[in-house]
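Predict structure. Input: Integral membrane regulator, 242 residues.
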Amino acid sequence: MSEPTRTSQSTRHATGPAGAAARTPAAAVAPTSRHPLAAAFRVLITTAALTGLLLAALATTGPAQLLTRFTVQAGVASVLVSACAAHRAWTGRRPVSPRLTGALLPFLWLPALIHHAFPAADSTAFTLPAATTPGVTQALCHQLLYTVVPLAALADWLLLTTPRGFRLPYAWQWPAYPLLFLALTLAFPATSGAPSPTATTALSIGIAICALPLTAIGIDQVRPAPRLHNNRISPTGISPLK
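Output follows.
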């Protein structure tokens, strides 16, 4: 016979309705907390990322080859994660795991950092291919994928999520795929249709890949908690004061 689950002293001796309430999981009785403003903001992030991807497809002669670019892969991840987060905020379900939302931040900021701060690396597989006829479409696409979406994802994290959700193991988990992608671009540059980065450029990208997760985790540990609506008026468990 299995050993009964240990409970608190007050729960073990409680009987009647009070005992039943004490043994009921908090998630089963807690009221649904919906966040329509957060949901609307995340829908805007989804729309901006999806628009940028569509414009990128229109600005190039080989839309299928875009899937081999890191910027496009990060944009697709942004669409999926932001749409899921918007749905959960609207319906009051549990938020998306910080493991996913946190990984999205360096994924979006890496190509943005390369595009704005490393002009020599702007022709690598981490960025978008050059358009056949540069114009308004390409400029708007770059603004959305390199500026608007990363900044919006940063604002969503800082203003609409609770802090200290990132864990130290994420510092080596999040860079795993970008580092693998960098290794593949060095070993097989023809697969992405972009020239292989030089040793200096590859080193700069590798440092950025490792530094962005550490920066995000460090900021998450010290940033203040946003004032989110909280429906809980008392702690769970049996207490004379309710």
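The two ends are 37 Å apart (CA to CA).
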